[in-house]
């Protein structure tokens, strides 16, 4: 990425577009290169190389937000994705983390928090707003409380990094380390390290342990 952060905004509310443009216009290290009401418009800008970071509302009219995020993570591994949430409930945060977002910021947070999140994401870090700590705790307690989607329960562990969660999700889907490495343009060693790190955090030693855990969560 260049020193000037190119931001694309995907939101169906014009007032959000106006407010974010006004906020970022006074900053020297970032610029809004486009505002988009639809995913196809945002996707075209991404394909043209006009966006380093996509700031988006995950609630979309014409497409599933999490599905759109997953497709972006697969096709554009360098793109950073920051999600704006109006009401950060546990279920929504869980789904978005599983989809592979790099950061989540609440719409009720100060705009300065959004700026901080953008800088953190472009530096290779991740960001979750202060409200997310309670949400993550809720995810873990709900996972222990009763039957839910086994994959979502496994992927909800807050200590998993986004890339560890991403690799784990694809492993659950049946992809080998080689296939995952080819898909994201990473080395076999990098993907294998991420997979093993996820296994350690989950207390797993092998693929067999992984699928036993999924079966256990499914009961």
From TrEMBL:
GO biological process per UniProt: phosphorelay signal transduction system; regulation of DNA-templated transcription
Domain HTH luxR-type as annotated: residue spans: 153-218
Residues in Response regulatory domain copies: 6-122
Molecular function terms, GO-annotated: DNA binding
Leader sequence segment: none
TM spans (from-to): none
SMART domains, per database record: HTH_LUXR
Superkingdom, natural source: Bacteria
Pfam families: GerE, Response_reg
Residue numbers carrying 4-aspartylphosphate: 57
Keywords (A to Z) from UniProt: DNA-binding, Phosphoprotein
Protein name: DNA-binding response regulator
Species this protein is from: Pseudomonas simiae
Source taxonomy: Bacteria, Pseudomonadati, Pseudomonadota, Gammaproteobacteria, Pseudomonadales
């Amino acid at each position: 990425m260049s020193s000037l952060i190119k931001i694309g905004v995907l939101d169906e509310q014009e007032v959000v577009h106006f407010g974010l443009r006004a906020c970022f216009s006074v900053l020297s290290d970032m610029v809004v290169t486009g505002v988009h009401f639809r995913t196809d418009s945002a996707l075209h800008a991404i394909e043209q190389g006009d966006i380093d970071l996509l700031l988006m509302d995950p609630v979309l009219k014409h497409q599933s937000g999490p599905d759109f995020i997953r497709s972006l993570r697969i096709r554009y591994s360098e793109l950073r994705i920051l999600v704006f949430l109006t009401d950060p409930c546990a279920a929504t945060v869980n789904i978005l983390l599983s989809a592979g977002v790099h950061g989540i910021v609440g719409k009720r947070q100060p705009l300065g928090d959004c700026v901080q999140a953008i800088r953190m994401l472009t530096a290779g870090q991740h960001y979750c707003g202060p409200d997310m700590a309670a949400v993550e705790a809720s995810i873990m307690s709900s996972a222990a409380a009763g039957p839910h989607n086994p994959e979502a329960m496994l992927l909800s562990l807050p200590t998993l990094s986004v890339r560890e969660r991403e690799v784990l999700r694809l492993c659950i889907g049946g992809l080998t380390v080689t296939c995952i490495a080819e898909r994201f343009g990473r080395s076999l060693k990098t993907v294998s390290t991420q997979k093993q790190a996820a296994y350690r955090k989950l207390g797993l030693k092998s693929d067999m342990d992984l699928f036993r855990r999924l079966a256990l969560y499914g009961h």
